[in-house]
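Q&A log
Question type: sequence-to-structure
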Amino acid sequence: MRLATWNVNSIRARSEQVVAWMNRHAIDVLAMQETKCPDDQFPVMSFIAHGYDVAFHGTGGYNGVAIASRIGLHDIHIGFDGQPQYDGQTEARAISALCGGVRVWSLYVPNGREPGHPHLQYKLDWLSALADVTSLELSHDPASQVALAGDWNVAPTDEDVWDPAYFENRTHTSDDERAAFARFVDSGFSDSAAPYTPGPHCYTFWDYQSGRFARNEGMRIDFALCSPALDDRVHDAFIDRNARAAEGASDHAPVVFDLS
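Response status: OK
Response body:
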């Protein structure tokens, strides 16, 4: 089984590019974020034409998540218990489904915007509620196979950003955000790509502005945190920088996991 996660940054603009990439790399399951697409406009046929079922949840704007699978797509859940709202709205930031016996989540964690902004507290509350749900489920069934895949909008260590000094007094690297991320690891989930993408400069996101990609001034903020039973099956992983380098590409690179 080959699983991937990718912030596609508008699926309507990139559906053919995304499906072509999936075919080229023999992807079985893809978790997508920032689809920016209401449900009635999702390009379903682009996926069905290539043998993928797809589940999606979106309202437009800068949210939206989806899962495409060619090995089954069952027991689809939208959101999660206790998911907080922002400005009175439950945003389209989480979807999960069973794919080949694995509970795959596609997660688009709130950005946080800037220190002191209400969106940062919303982000921390959102991560806390998700941790409550996933840690409880894992404690009830330690043998469950679960992938918490998505754009986490957190760089867990200084190695995960191009210049730690640049990120002082900014979001994504604050102590509170890193502690929120660490709670998932402490509950038993693993950063399963880390052993296969070691050391600094293994980024998954480069801002469009200021030539960041050309200078490799990026961040590692896209992950699939795997439960112990699923982590045992991961035998390789890679970040596909070539997908980020393609013309008209998303500002994120996909992260790919090979499972035995």
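Response note: Residues 58 and 241 are 27 Å apart (CA to CA).
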